[in-house]
Write a structure and sequence with these properties.
Layout (H helix, E strand, L loop, with lengths): L2 H6 L6 H26 L8 E11 L2 E9 L4 E11 L5 E12 L3 E9 L6 E9 L1
Antiparallel strand pairs: 1-2, 2-5, 3-4, 3-6
Length: about 130
């Protein structure tokens, strides 16, 4: 402090107090964000799986399958990607499809994929709730 500061009663700013207040506010914001993300965000990452139950070659360049989507009680539109594979497991066709779930634990749909060559099987690679 200089002589003028002591003469007029001015005190330097309390830096430690400001840092503690700022850190407390940032910590409170972080906890509020963490709670809101965990409890109030829709469950988009529920375990939704799909698999081809049965398949049949309907034409030389087409394969059809019955796909079972297990939704774990989810409600909404599920977006999946199905791939047709040949005998050497090379991808010869794919199709993106949507399934609407209304709280069901399981739903079966018919899927048909056009292929570039003779297909041997269908796999459903990924599904996610939109």
């Amino acid at each position: 402090m200089t002589d003028l500061d002591s003469r007029y009663g001015r005190k330097p700013a309390n830096g430690k107090r400001n840092i503690i207040v700022l850190a407390s506010v940032l910590l409170a914001i972080f906890f509020f964000w963490a709670v809101s993300v965990n409890f109030f965000t829709p469950a988009k990452d529920k375990q939704i799986t799909a698999e081809a139950v049965s398949f049949i070659k309907t034409a030389p360049n087409q394969i059809s399958a019955t796909v079972k989507v297990v939704g774990a009680g989810a409600t909404g539109t599920v977006h999946c990607v199905g791939k047709a594979l040949d005998a050497s497991y090379a991808i010869v066709g794919f199709k993106e499809f949507d399934v609407t779930l209304a709280g069901e634990s399981e739903k079966r749909i018919a899927l048909s994929i056009n292929t570039t060559s003779k297909a041997a099987s269908i796999v459903v690679e990924s599904c996610r709730l939109q």
